Every structure is written in C-alpha cells, then in structure tokens.
Amino acid sequence: MAVAVPPPPSNASESTKPGCQSRCGNLEIPYPFGIGSNCSQNPYFNISCNTSFNPPKPFLNGIYYDYNTLSYYEVVNISETQIYVKNSKAQMAMACYGNKTQNSTMDFFGSPYTLSDANQVTSIGCDDLAMVVSLLTNTSDGGGCASYCSRLGRFQKQDFVGSCPGRGCCRTSLSKGEFLNVQLSDMHSYWGRRTKRFRCSFAFIGKIGGYDKFNFHLSHLNDPTNFLKNYNEEFMGMPLVLDWSIMDSNCTDAPNSTNYACQKNSNCIDMDSTKLGGYHCRCKKGYEGNPYLGCHDINECKKPNKCLPFGICTNTLGSYNCSCPNGYLGDGKINCIPVHLSHSKLAIGVGLGAGMGLLLLLPTCFWLYKFYKKRKDKKRKEKFFKRNGGLLLQQQILTDQSILEKTQLFTIKELEKSTDNFNESRILGQGGQGTVYKGMLSEGKIVAIKKSKLVDENQVEQFINEVVMLSQIIHRNVVKLLGCCLETEVPLLVYEFIFNGTLFDHIHDKTNEFPLSWNMRLKIVVEVAEALAYLHYATSFPIYHRDVKSTNILLDEKYVAKVSDFGTSRSIAVDHTHLTTLVKGTFGYLDPEYFQSSQFTEKSDVYSFGVVLAELLTGQKPISSAKAGEERSLATRFLLCMEAENFEKILDPQVLEQGKREELTTVAKLAQRCLNLNGKKRPTMKEVAMELEIVRMSQTHSNARETKYQGVELRKSKAILISDDNYTWTSTSDNITQSSSHPLKIHTV
C-alpha cells in the first residue's frame, strides 16, 4: 500500500523559500541557504540533511578544503553574516618526527566563504613551530607561534602534563582571507636540543574562545592515534567560523544586476573593508522577514510602542502614528488633554502654550546634552590620564623642569587632527607593540604617532620613567621620542618621522632602484652598533632594546641609520647584569639563550645585531619558509658556513664583488662571534662598534699602517652638561693614536 507524503506545514518558516524544507534537526536553514533542488540561491549555499543521525545533521556541500578535495562541513549555526561549521581531521596539521608531515590547507577562492578573523590556530607539541600563511585579495600575511616545553628535569616524561595555553601549547590569531596553510616544523635542533622530546605535534583551527583551557599528557604526543582519541572533543568540538556574502559585486553595482539578491523593502550592506567584495541584505527599519525573499511591514501597534497608554496607534508602512481619542487634544505620544466643547478657546490656548513650551524645551535639552557630553568626555580623558601615569609624569616635571622641554604632552584633539582621525590611509605599519600612523602637527612638522597596546596598570610607573628617559636620548642614530598623549585608552607616543623606509625593505626589495652597496652597508652597521653601544653604556641607566631587527632600523633621506621601536625596551639598574622577563622578540632574531632562561642581558641585543649583520652580508631573510629544519634559520646557515670555512658561499654576490676579502672576513668573523650560542663568549656592543669602525676607517686610510683591533680601547672623557662626549681610539701597535668624535656621538643630560 502506498504511503502518502504529507505536504509541508502551512506555517513553514518565512525565512525559507516556499515549498522547501525549513529545518534539519535542531537547525533552521534560512534562504539563501536551502535544502533540496532549487531551494538555495546557488550551489555554494546547498545544505544536505543527513537523516541517518538522530536528530538529523545538516552539512554544507561543495567547499574545497584542499586544492582538489571536496569537504562536507557539518553546520552548527547560521547567522546574518557568518556560518559556524565543525572541524574535521582533514583540517588538522600533524607532524611526527621521522615520518611524513601533513599540512592543513583551506582554499575558499571563488566561493562566497572566507575565513573569519574570529578564528585562531592552536599548536600542540614540544619544540615545534607552527607557520601560518593566510592570503587576502591583493595582500598576503602570515604569522606563527612556537609551542615549547620547559626543562623536564630527571622525572619520567609520561609524568608531565601539558596545558593549553601553557606548556606544550601556543595560539596565534588569523586574518580574514580566502586561503590558509598551516605548516608544522621541528625546532628541537634550533633550540640546541640533541633529540626530539616527543614524536608528534598537531595544529588545528577554530573559533577564539570556543573551548575552555584543557590539560593533556605529554606522553600521548608519542602516539598520534591515542592522542586524537583522547582529545578529539577539544579539537573537533570547537567550531570553525566562516564569513559569507553574496559574491562578485558590491552595493554600488549590484542593484543594476539581474541577479541582485536584496528583495522588496531591504537594503544592501557592503562587506567590511577587507576588499574581498560581496554584500549582504538587511530589512529596512520598520520591516522584518528574510531580506533575500522580501521583507514585510511590522505592525508596531501590536508591539510595545511610544504612544500613550490610552492613545490611538495607527500602523503605517515602516512606521506608525499616535493620536488622542475623541474629547482630548495632543499628539498621543507626549500628552492628551481633555477638552470640553464649551471651553474650546481655553483648550486652544492650552495647546498653544504646550507647543511653545515644547519649542523652548528642545533647545534646552540640546544644550544640556552638549554640556553633559562635554563633561563626560572631560572626565573620561582625566580617567585615562590618571590610569596611564599622567599624575606621575606631572610630579616628575615639577621636580625637574627640563623634562617639560623634552617631553611634550600632546592632546588627543591635536593628534586626531594631525592623522585625519587616525585614518587607515595614514597607517605606516603594524607590529606586536601597536600601530604607527603618519601625522602632521599644526606647525607643519611631520611625525610618526604610535598607538600602543594596553599598558599594564601595575607597570605604569616603569612606563612613565621610560618615556621620560627615552625622550632625553639625543643621538644621531636613535629615533627621537618627542612626547606622548595620555588622554586615550591606550597611550600615544610621538616620534620624529624618518622618510626613507626600513633597512629590511632596502635589503630584500629586489625592485629597489638604489641597492645598498657594500660601503653603505658597512656605514649602516657602524651607525647601528654605535647607537646600541650608546644605549648600553652611555645613558644614566643601561637600556636594552630587546627587539633589534632590520625592520626596526630606519634610513633617512641621506641613508643615515636610525634605531627605532623601543616598545619592548627596558632599563635596568647599573648594579644588575640581566633582566628576567616573559620572552618577547622576533623569531630569527631571538637569542636562544634568552629563550631558554628568560634572562635578557646586553649580550641578547648583541645576538640580534649579529643576525642583522648576517642579513646585510648575505642579503637573505632571517627565517626562510622555503627550507626545512635548522636550515630555516639564517643564523644557523651562516654559522655552518663559517665553521666549514666556506663563508663566500652564502655571501650576497654584490657584497662579494664590491668588498675586499680582508674586510669581508673580518666582518663575517665578528658576526660569527655575535651569534655564539654562549652569551659570555660574545663581544659587547662597545667592542662591536670599535671593530666595525676600524674596518670602515681602513677603507679611507688604506695606506695607513695595519691596526690591530685587539689592542684598541675606547676611552671616554668626562661628560659635562649638554655637551658631546668625545671618544678616543687608541692603538697599542707602534704607539699610533687616532681621535674621532664621530663613532659614538652622545649628548649627555
């Protein structure tokens, strides 16, 4: 006997295309998504409902997670602009030491979906680096993080527990994009370990905050099957967030298209500013429903409205009107006054009086609003000023009036005007410490304004002391800090503007019309070494930069080097030799000894400078994604070539052609000493500056006697108030003495 299929219910959801299934299990499927033939806007929005589960589960069809492999994502939720889907093991990166590595690749090119920046990458393993490459239209960016296990001591490895985040786990955020590739690399040899502690590492992608902190046994990293079995819920339970839109157009062109998706009584909303294109639809104010099927008027009179309780509500398209019942005068919203026919003139007078009162009330209310807003803004600025250490700075200014001459306090109004309200077009660069904008002050001076990340309130005193200290640094090779603004949620630091870009760009940009010659490279490293030596030895308290790299070295119009970005710098007492902090820095430049001990010394800056020196000699980047294992690190490759006495193999051809062999050998050996894994065997920045200056002086005094740099000493004459310190270079060979005030030009205050 045939079984009749019941027709769809007459009260099917208005968000679904007529005649189509509206739900799958516990999830409503709104159009442009749909279940079944002709129920979605296009095949990319097709949803299949798998009834073999109880309750049934919806799956998103036809999306490639790899170049030629279809992925069927289980759908968890659908919102106005995003769709939440469950992860699958195919989207997990896995690497087991000695076995083949499985990368995680997601490719959404040509589809209406993009990876949301609400996702993050979580990497689990010991001594592993997760490299993330995400690709946005016309731009590409990447990042990564290292999962590290601290020393385990003499206990059994299986007794140790990892935590996420924490030991054996790291996380990094993602940018919006259409393509993502996650690669895992073994770093145990880079960190100086003889063997890999645990065989396997994993990386997976999911929503930020999608699950709480969890612990795991490190010993499970030796068995990938067991690990996935035990922690499947943590990996797969966190949804992946995708942004979706109507493709191939924007709200300027879409209304003229025959495939325009926004239907009756709806507005077109452009995607965000990521330049991916596409748009959404949204019902107009006063209308509700599915904007892709057509919105209908809301009957405000059936819902709470602003009419008086006894007023008469009349619904209109997109809005409503209020009126008073018979026998009353008024608008039905503010008042309804009873009126007797025998006193109509009085009623008219009362109505006119009420109208005049309303006219007077409106400007009064506007003035009170402006006054309240201005007072609120003033209190808000005062709150931020106190929280960011403004009172402490004022106290120091009262103690020492010279600080006011060198540390200017800018107002937020002045800086907003100089940057066109911090317009995105004014952004010069973004980094781990904040965003830098280009601005022009009222007197026409061009400056660089750094919008820092939130300041730890427990370190406000240290922050203000360092602002005062850095603003008093006067050195031709250090970017000058002009002042700060403390009236905002995050402090704003104002620096002098350097016009000619970063050293990194000049080294690695192959399209540069003016490539750096060997002489220019030598001049630049001499200037940088002098600046760092000045910070280490010539200031009232030694200053450690903590993030020396080629992107933090700027070049002005005359190619004079300027050390910049002191966002992670710290000063220490003169009787201390190191600073114990959380590990901060940039991969490729980070001192391995500091990474393992968390103790930053002056020799940590020396190691980072050694990487910059190797970068200038070789023309290669500090980390190469094209190489594997320890070969990824420029420092490691450079040291291997030096140990094999074959350093010409790694040198930049231009440097090899222009530089004299004696000069190149001396500078390369100096870089080798700077990169020594034992910090005690590295030279000081003062010694580095002297040795580089000797090489440079030999270029201009090629006929002079050979100077033995082992016998050179730096002698500093007594400093006086606001004067240039002179340094005397003395050679012990043949009693030759040469003096110069250039190598370390210091103004002491």
Automatic annotation (TrEMBL):
Subcellular location per the Swiss-Prot or TrEMBL entry: Membrane
Transmembrane segments: 346-369
GO molecular function: ATP binding; protein serine/threonine kinase activity
Domain Protein kinase: 422-695
Domain EGF-like residue range list: 253-296, 297-337
GO cellular component, one term: membrane
Name the record gives this protein: Wall-associated receptor kinase-like 9
Taxon lineage: Eukaryota, Viridiplantae, Streptophyta, Embryophyta, Tracheophyta
